[in-house]
Amino acid sequence: MKRLDVTGDICPIPVLKTKKALEELKEGEELEVIGDYKPALENIRRFAENNGYTVILAEETDNGFRIVIRK
């Protein structure tokens, strides 16, 4: 699983970085995105679902959020 840390970034940067990272994955691979800007969680989830990716997990954490997406 590839990990992308978008801590310190605010939208739209986390979504743009997630898009780029997902494009580099092979079909079936997973991407874990972590960050501290909680509104990005819903934006990343919406982007993933609207573009045919599978959201495995999406949760708020003490420090921000964590989302796992399968290509």
UniProtKB/TrEMBL annotation:
Residues 4-28 form the UPF0033 domain. It comes from Methanocaldococcus villosus KIN24-T80. SUPFAM superfamilies: SirA-like (SSF64307). The lineage of its organism: Archaea, Methanobacteriati, Methanobacteriota, Methanomada group, Methanococci. It holds the Pfam family TusA. It comes from the Archaea. This is SirA family protein.
